[in-house]
Sequence to fold (858 residues):
Amino acid sequence: MDALGKGHPPDVVVLPANTEEVAAIARVCNAQRVPLVVRGAGTGFTGGAVPTYGGVLLSMERLNRIIEVDELNLLAVVEPNVINADLQRAVEKVGLLYPPDPASLHQSTIGGNVAECAGGPRAFKYGTTKRYILALEAVLPTGEIINTGSKAVKNVVGYDLTQLLVGSEGTLAIITTITVRLVPKPPANATMLATFGSIQSAVDAVSELIRRRVVPAAVELIDSDSLAAVHDNLSADLVPRGTAAALIVEVDGTPRGVDEDLDRVMDACRSAGAKDMSRAATEAERETIWSVRRQISVALKATGLVKINHDVVVPRGRVPELFDAIGEMKRTYGLRVASFGHAGDGNIHVNLLLTPGDAGEQARAKEAERFLFTRVIALEGSISGEHGIGFAKAPYLLLELSGEEIALMKRVKAAFDPNGILNPGKIFP
Amino acid sequence: MDALGKGHPPDVVVLPANTEEVAAIARVCNAQRVPLVVRGAGTGFTGGAVPTYGGVLLSMERLNRIIEVDELNLLAVVEPNVINADLQRAVEKVGLLYPPDPASLHQSTIGGNVAECAGGPRAFKYGTTKRYILALEAVLPTGEIINTGSKAVKNVVGYDLTQLLVGSEGTLAIITTITVRLVPKPPANATMLATFGSIQSAVDAVSELIRRRVVPAAVELIDSDSLAAVHDNLSADLVPRGTAAALIVEVDGTPRGVDEDLDRVMDACRSAGAKDMSRAATEAERETIWSVRRQISVALKATGLVKINHDVVVPRGRVPELFDAIGEMKRTYGLRVASFGHAGDGNIHVNLLLTPGDAGEQARAKEAERFLFTRVIALEGSISGEHGIGFAKAPYLLLELSGEEIALMKRVKAAFDPNGILNPGKIFP
Fold:
């Protein structure tokens, strides 16, 4: 199981101690045609680390060392089971930053983040995991150990297998060592929360701030249903009850630079009709602002409803149309829905909230899912921004990709895994 | 021919007007097993756009439209033959920036930039071409039209074929439409030039400024031989004769932010022992500073010598060791060498300068080439940072990649191009 809550048990669990043991396990599985599934912390939302046909589960538990933090060359070398937050802490100690910050950062592993190409709030300015992977050591399902990329920040020697492995959901190779790129940690940041009378004006504020040439580190949007869940189950004194939408914006840079930037952010929010704005003056106030966003998942779980998280993404300017589609979905299928996410990226987490055991609601949720994905594609978006396809979204792949594109991807898969032993049943319908 | 000055003529040149015509040409070539080579402006340094076996040369000349600049979504859609500088101008008109800025930007095309994953001075802060490609329309050598990625900035649906095509040197598919990501153009920039008594202290200055948490837009290093060529053939009043090394640093951001940053850059240069520093106060002074860098290639050509440009890259902290290796190469093989490039990225262009018609020097240059590449690999670097492999560096691929890695890349190639008709004789030895 993972965060999706579905799956099948493996027949065997193995815990290799090093790359050579991983290679030996792969060779045995390949020779015997046994399914081999790699697992980190199991925090995924689409079943990527969950067996679908039994077989061998390869746990990365013991490959958990930070091998090197190289300040001069702005890089770190880690084993796959290092927890994201542990890497963050290790590099921040020496004044550096590893930008990818998925909500699961205290549980999820760098290996899992690489396999799924995890995002997070800072992706607006900094990009997702793929932008920070310089080199990989990996084991092919046939047992060969390969190295991709290098410690140099540029490398155009042969095909970019590094980026092909990032986001390949454990279906192409078993990642055993990861070289990540770091950036200097900006000396200052500034954070604000603004409330709006509608989703439309919150999104207008995002467009306005881009028009004013600000590139915030994060731009997070929270809708009324998500805010209500936080109010009902936790606390959100910053946001009055009944608020239609809230925006959290954080900028980073030099001390005077962030002041200038936050002024422009607040101008943008004001001109888009913000009702109320709070600017954090202390680190504690910054934490209070971020806690509104961080509490949502917990608050939604506290409702006692079953939460089905859809991670859709559209070009940023089309977020209002996406919310129109979400509204239509709510009405047509009679469902509770709470939405929030990375507005700057057009990446919104649409959470269907279902009464446990209500088969009718579950059936309507299935239909709603297809409705939502079809609309997202029509808006030139994508059915997954950062959670991947796994087995949960595999039935919908043809909504986004053509038969020829899928056939090509399957030929690429065969180039890595001729016997199809690695993570079978994922991505492809 | 391209900038490398070597090649074989094609049998036929075709100039398709649209994607469908490209697909029809591919189908004919594939059916008849005829080599098919795609060509943009032909400014490459490794022969990527040059036929090696005759066949059909597919010129992209007529696919030269900027289809769309979308301010709200920070993207542009272009055909492959759009010149880099024309795209820069079009997006800067609306306050946006397309960061990749190869030295060839006034001649080279976006399609060629994508095929080779072009870099440039701004890559230190902004990254190379790959970071700016959101989506591609491409024609497979077998004639199918595929679309990769989407207009959304995040997309983890299936394998990342977009990044696999970027830098694939025209060997996997024929790119027909490119969706690029743009960023808001920073409102201000500031530029300085510093001179140093040794390469080592110039590189120390780069390490120092990173220690001070500055992320300049560009950090360019010029060695004494390159400076001498500029002095002899053009003009460089800013840099006294006999200077061992010069560094050009540009920062961008908010007006007050760039002031703060440039102060920190100058502190860093001072503490690393800079001899002289000039800070541009006007746009004209900024141009004067950059002209020192931009004149190098012309000045080296004006020497009348044959210039062989090697585009090597090492982890930034190992640039002094790279210059040690270059010094050893000069002495061992008795060659003139001028080096300059993107010090922030560890990406140095090492130019061998040969007397035309001197067979002995040419033979020594061949040996020197292998010496240099072997040392670069030993320094954990790569034999190409931004120019690609083409046919010029194909004999050296095994220095950097293992037999298994090359075999895997060939299987990926076969997944796209089962009959091997697309740009044969490139990348692989």
User: Anything to note?
Assistant: The radius of gyration of chain A is 22 Å.
